[in-house]
Amino acid sequence: MDTTKLIQDYARDGFISSVKLFSAAEAAVHRGELERAEALLGPLHYQSKIHTILRSPYELATHPQLIDIVEKILGPDILLYNAVYIIKEPNTPNFVSWHQDLTYWGFSDDDDQVSAWIALSQATGESGCMQMIPGSHKRGMNKQVLTDDPNNVLYLGQTIVDVCDDDSILCPLNPGEASLHHGWTVHSSTANKSKDRRIGLNIQYIRTSMYQQNSQSDSALLIRGSDSFGHFEPDALPPNEIPPDAKERLAQQSQKIGQITTKQSRI
């Protein structure tokens, strides 16, 4: 893997894609762990900080090869802020509208964050893989409107309405591959029209210098380097087995993240 070229592409386009982290067989093992947890806990789509409850997403979010790339972008001191499964069931209308992540996370700095998306099933144009607008991260925040479409996966349905789809690039991923994108990169994904689930783990990494502006209390997990700032309370490491209070903890964490993101300090 040519890390230097990846970082150059990221700086130019605001994203990189098709970064192979592990085999399809390993991806199938992690998918099996997710579906075993779903059998016990119910749907895990968009449950915040899932890496503090389950070992599999924690292992994915801290994959050494992935963190090596993140370090090239953010530097040596890295916090894992959040990890969520984003799951589109087969032949369902759920989609993600054109948006930028940094508009609703409440973070203090624009270039101190990077998101990763790891595929646990095939992500194609048919199944609704992500699509990005190259170079859009260099233009700062776009005007976004709030919508109430029930099929929009985003919390508030925030949408950039003047995007030209012809300017976008599809980012298909095989199981075990990842993409990374900047918080200002304009991106979206369409509905899953395939016969299989489209399963991805979405992860946010931040520099330790970052702080939260939408809440007096927020948490993250130091995964590389050191934290001399202490702006975030430490998240718990996941236990080896699913804890008996997993549902309650997930509900609390999702509620807290929801309160932060719905404050909407930038829209």
Set out the fold topology.
Layout: H1 3-13, E1 15-20, H2 24-41, H3 55-61, H4 64-74, E2 78-88, E3 96-99, E4 113-119, E5 130-132, E6 169-170, E7 177-182, E8 187-189, E9 198-207, E10 219-224, E11 233-234, H5 246-261
Parallel strand pairs: 10-11
Antiparallel strand pairs: 1-7, 2-9, 2-10, 3-8, 4-7, 4-9, 5-6, 5-8
Characterize the structure shown.
24% of the residues lie in helices and 22% in strands. With 267 residues, the protein is an alpha+beta fold. It has a single domain (3-261), classed as Jelly Rolls. The N and C termini lie far apart (38 Å).
Brief overview, please?
By secondary structure, the protein is of the alpha+beta class.
Name its key features.
267 residues, globular, 22% strand, 24% helix, seven-stranded mixed β-sheet, alpha+beta, Jelly Rolls
| CATH class categorisation | Mainly Beta
CATH architecture: Sandwich
Sheet of most strands: 7 strands, mixed
> Whole-Å distance between the termini?
38 Å
Strand content: 15-25%
Low-confidence stretches: none
> Order of strands across the widest beta sheet?
1-7-4-9-2-10-11
> What percent of the residues sit in helical stretches (DSSP H or I)?
10-25%
Structural class: alpha+beta
| DSSP, total strands | 11
Give the H and E element order.
HEHHHEEEEEEEEEEH
What is the overall number of helices? 5
Number of domains: 1
CATH superfamily annotation: q2cbj1_9rhob like domain
What's the shape?
globular
As for the CATH topology, it is Jelly Rolls
Mean pLDDT: 94
Radius of gyration: 17 Å
